[in-house]
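Form 7-S
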Amino acid sequence: MNFIDLQAQRARIAPEIDAAIARVLSTCGFIMGPEVTGFEKALGAFAGAKHVLSCANGTDALLLPLRAWEIGPGDAVFCPSFTFVATAEVVPLVGASPVFVDIDPVTYNIDACQLEAAITPRTRAILPVHLFGLCADMAPIAATAARARIPIVEDAAQAIGATFRGQPAGGMGALGCFSFFPSKNLGAFGDAGLVTTNDPALAHRVRLLRNHGAEPKYYHHIVGGNFRMDALQAAVLRVKAPHLAAWTEARRVNASRYARLFRQSGLDGRVTLPTEPPGHRHIYNQFVIRTADRDRLKRHLDGRGIGNEIYYPVPFHLQPCFADLGHRRGDFPHAERAADESLAIPIYSELNESQQAAVVDAIAEFAQVTA
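Output:
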């Protein structure tokens, strides 16, 4: 069983996808243009933002807001120590310093309670992540940011369609950042990303930055770069976007089914399942379980041919690329424990009940053998 089955998804919409690709090929308009504009219009509703700006990938979507805010040398940006590396690596790319914060042990998201005490005059932004499809606790984060008068840049790469108290991921900060990597709930046929904002001045600056700072063509107002989305990816995403709500609901149904199957298998206490706190709508980009026997369980599932992934095996503060920050094991214990215990199992929308039962049966078998 695959961890994710992109073939199953494509099979259902293949004629639409093929027609969209053919449309782009017939015009030979491969960079920006009407396909990209149409995609941006289609995505505005998901983020609840007035300005939707496509870009080449999710990492660029994180980098562009920092440049739009002119964050650079001498500045500090807060982010969790446990997530995908792009969140932290964009900070030194603009010359600033990442400041890591531990995570909430239940939600995996940044621990808002630790933010305010760590704020300094150097702090220029907070970069919370809505990890695995669950929004961070944005109320205290927003309150801290407001008191410190610093912006929030939301990393919503894994959370398109998720909400917190009715507000959409990517629509609660100064800017929102999305990824359309193929494994995401809304995935391209390659790399693609998106920046959202309600601030027209920030939108204009991001628009300039993504296209060499030019407006109009060949007239360069600021030093930008090439962060543009190509039309083929936009065409594919335009086809997929109307299906996103149904695909998301299917993931939520699968998550509920897993909860029932795990209860029926008597695995309470041996395996911790993801949670959906009050006021949150989880979209389950990943379904991450936790167990102290994670590495042995992974080997067991591998042996049974059941796809699984470790997200993420090493927290930022212990990564070699951030060694100059001087952290050591024990600095962020909840992030370290999550890195040691977490394992993602299949949750894609085409997954059926018999496949889910096979996953849970394999985990129950492992629990019996190791009891």
